[in-house]
Design brief:
The protein is an alpha+beta fold.
Length: about 375
């Protein structure tokens, strides 16, 4: 492309030279995530990855997601360094629930204007989380679209591929009545419910990012940018344990919509409130946002980021393994038989086993 046409494109809002400078600055970040399976360098039309050996019947598991309007909080704070990690960890958890370990990750960054510092923070967070999860950042796409995004607007999306041996696939088919539900503690909102949380905290209550959220001892910035945890290190050692029968990542839809996704028909999950402590942040959002209890449990994780379904005779071993990993896991309910052929559902029992208008959720 000639200098003249390049300048015309820049005048239209897309500066190719600036993009190239931004991309060159992140190549080392990408290289830092390379694993043994990576066969290509950054900059090719496609990323190349060798499927690892040692699997009798390897199955590839994929997922794609974003971080939603948590990006708006990052923009308000002027700090994009953590949301890339949120994205990777979210995607890792989404394939982990089927027993898969991550192989590689690809990202998409869209913007009105690609700024090298912001790009470095976004991709730096992605790369750091990829390294932590043993996952290669194989490639991605950056798109500068001034006619679509406003200056200062960013979009961040990720795509992950993992692998599991078919006999080890967790598809919920082994879940039985009387299995135990173990909840793993979340770090806060993770990446879901931010539109409602921002409205409750920033608009309705009128707090700023530097103000303390009552009862939490943390600022608004701290609680809203708290990381989305990866549960790979905690659950990885349990994937070969036959007593682990199912996993549910508690994201959008909360406990009420996500747990039924892994249950066979004719079974329901009975989740008992009071078996874990709901973080104060969620109580404040409910109060300031005037949100009903059922809706809170549908929108937010309410302090539980992952649910394990475990055979009763394996519960002690699983809980001991979780403690060794540093994860905080507690029994929060059981799987029970429902009518034959009935759609999977959840019955939520609040405080002291008092049934709160039991919420039956079709799977």
């Amino acid at each position: 492309m000639s200098q003249e046409s390049s300048s015309a494109y820049a005048r239209a809002g897309v500066d190719i030279d600036a993009q190239d400078r931004a991309l060159s600055s992140i190549k080392e970040l990408v290289r830092s995530t390379q694993t043994a399976g990576v066969l290509s360098e950054i900059g090719g039309f496609g990323g190349l990855f060798r499927v690892p050996s040692g699997y009798d019947e390897p199955i590839l598991v994929s997922s794609a997601d974003g971080v939603g309007t948590k990006l708006m909080v990052a923009a308000m704070a002027g700090d994009y360094s953590t949301v890339g990690g949120d994205l990777v960890n979210h995607c890792v958890n989404d394939i982990l629930v089927q027993g898969a370990r991550p192989l590689f990750f690809m990202d998409y960054v869209g913007a009105g204007v690609l700024e090298s510092e912001t790009m470095g923070q976004l991709v730096g967070g992605v790369a750091a989380a990829c390294r932590d999860n043993g996952c290669a950042l194989l490639g991605g796409e950056t798109a500068e679209m001034p006619g679509f995004y406003k200056a200062g607007d960013y979009e961040l999306v990720g795509f992950i591929v993992g692998i599991v041996d078919r006999p080890s696939l967790l598809d919920g088919s082994r879940i039985r009545a009387q299995d135990l539900l173990i909840g793993l503690e979340s770090a806060g909102l993770h990446t879901n419910g931010f539109s409602l949380a921002r409205r409750a905290i920033l608009e309705n209550k009128g707090l700023g990012l530097g103000d303390e959220v009552e009862g939490t001892g943390q600022t608004v910035r701290d609680v809203l940018l708290a990381p989305h945890l990866s549960y790979l290190s905690a659950i990885g050692p349990l994937l070969s344990n036959p007593g682990l029968r199912g996993l549910a990542h508690i994201t959008g839809g909360g406990l009420l919509d996500n747990v039924p996704r892994i249950l066979p028909s004719g079974l329901r999950a009975e989740i008992r409130g009071g078996t874990w402590e709901i973080p104060e942040l969620f109580h404040r959002i409910q109060e300031w946002g005037d949100v009903g209890t059922e809706e809170m449990f549908r929108v937010f994780n309410m302090g539980v980021g992952m649910v394990l379904v475990v055979a009763p005779d394996a519960a002690s071993e699983v809980l001991a393994s979780l403690r060794v990993s540093g994860a905080k896991g507690k029994p929060i309910g059981t799987v029970q038989a429902a009518e034959s052929g009935a759609s999977p559902s959840v019955v939520l029992q609040l405080d002291g086993g008092v049934e709160h208008a039991p919420v039956e959720v079709d799977g």
